[in-house]
Amino acid sequence: MPLGGIVSILILAPNLLFLVYPPLDSGTAKPLEKDKTFKVMEILEWVGRLGCFILPFFYALTISDYGAILAAVVMVVAYVAYLAGWLRYLRQGRRTVTLYQPMWGLSQPMAVWPVIYFWAAAVFFNSFWLILAALVLAVGHIYVSSQEYKRWK
Fold first, then answer.
1. Cβ–Cβ contacts within 10 Å for residue 72, how many?
2. 0.90 exceeded by pTM
3. Cα–Cα distance for residue pair 153/150, rounded to 1 Å
4. Can you list the positions of beta strands (E) in the chain?
5. Would you say 56 and 8 are in contact if contact means Cβ atoms under 8 Å apart?
6. Dihedral of alpha carbons 48, 115, 14, 97, sign
7. Consecutive H or E run containing 20
8. Chain-centre distance of CA 28, in angstroms?
9. Contact at 8 Å (CB) between 79 and 11?
10. H-state helical runs in the chain
11. Model confidence over 12-68: pLDDT tens digits?
């Protein structure tokens, strides 16, 4: 039975924090100007996001070789780092900018960690289509997040 959807559910779960703990500074940022490039990147982000969230549901969670083990380790590290970013958001006053600020020397950590997580998932599942979806997500999500960061800092 394919249980790969757990991969998608895990990475989505922390985002539910917005429902319970929304940013305290919402509405205080400069307006975001969505030029043509931004709109294209936003579409790429959504296409990649949909692929990354839907495709894992078609795969089984099985360890097939050492590559899958290594990929699972990378997924766990990326997931824990992503959770650390959410913890930082909560501990630093639920300010939106904390979701975009560098962490541990990594720029755009809350955009980069999920991409790394899905790249590792693609290796784990041996899925060309998930690698492609993660690449599209990376291009769109990191660009859009960098524009959001400029807006909030």
1. 16
2. yes
3. 6
4. none
5. yes
6. negative
7. helix 17-20
8. 24
9. yes
10. 5-12, 17-20, 36-54, 66-91, 109-125, 128-152
11. 999 998 889 988 887 776 777 889 999 999 999 999 999 999 999 999 988 889 999
